[in-house]
Amino acid sequence: MTLEVIKNILYFFIGSGILAFLIRSIIKHWLNKDFEKYKLEVLKLAEEHKIKFDRLHSERAEVIKNLYGKLSKSITSMQSLISPVQFDGQKIEDKMNKAVEEANDFIEYYDQNKIFFQKELCVLLDTITLSLKESFKLFKRKDHEPDKSSNEVLDFWDQAWNKISSDVPKAKEKLENEFRKLLGVESD
Q1: What is the pLDDT of residues 142-163, one digit of tens each?
Q2: Virtual CA dihedral for 57, 59, 65, 69, nearest 10 degrees?
């Protein structure tokens, strides 16, 4: 009888061990299957996100390149127009038309693509845009106020030149640094 009890206990432990092993194996297999399914789903979502981010970054880089080019042309044309020394022989009227056209091209492109930039960067771009407009208005003011003395006219011109030759380049340098950060060319 004791031998039989020992045998039964032994069978019970062996059977329990085999049953526990089977249950554990089934649960492990089921969990691994779900984990692999979940892992594949996460990898798929990560890849989709990466593709969207890469496409957005590429599009943003193109916008930055075009915007910066238009800004540079606009500043160069405005500086050529407002410069106190005019050596190139071009008519002021022609320079003015070119400066206005390029400034408007920059402003229009910027307005259409503001969404690509953080608010802080938009404030900087708005400051540059305002400085371009103010420089032009000051320059034009000298022609539309005939009752002003020549010193007052020269003062308007001087204010316009200081804004376009000093204020705008400083703001443009800050903008360049921000663009470099966005493009990953320069770290913080």
Answers
A1: 665 666 667 777 888 888 898 8
A2: -150
Domain count, the chain: 1
Backbone phi, psi, residue 44, to 5°: -65, -45
Contact (CB, 8 A) for 147 and 100: no
Distance CA 118, CA 30 (A): 47
| Residue 116 pLDDT | 92
Whether 188 maps to a domain, the answer reads: no
Which pTM value belongs to this model? 0.71
Question: The domain containing residue 154 runs over which residues?
Answer: 61-183
For the stretch 10-61, pLDDT in tens is 667 777 777 777 788 777 777 777 777 777 787 888 788 778 777 888 899 9
DSSP string of the chain, one letter each residue: -HHHHHHHHHHHHHHHHHHHHHHHHHHHHHHHHHHHHHHHHHHHHHHHHHHHHHHHHHHHHHHHHHHHHHHHHHHHHHHHHH-S---S---HHHHHHHHHHHHHHHHHHHHHHGGGS-HHHHHHHHHHHHHHHHHHHHHHHTTS-TTS-HHHHHHHHHHHHHIIIIIHHHHHHHHHHHHHHHHTSS--
State how far the Cα of 159 lies from the Cα of 143, in Å rounded to an integer: 14
Q: What CATH number is associated with residue 153?
A: 1.20.1440
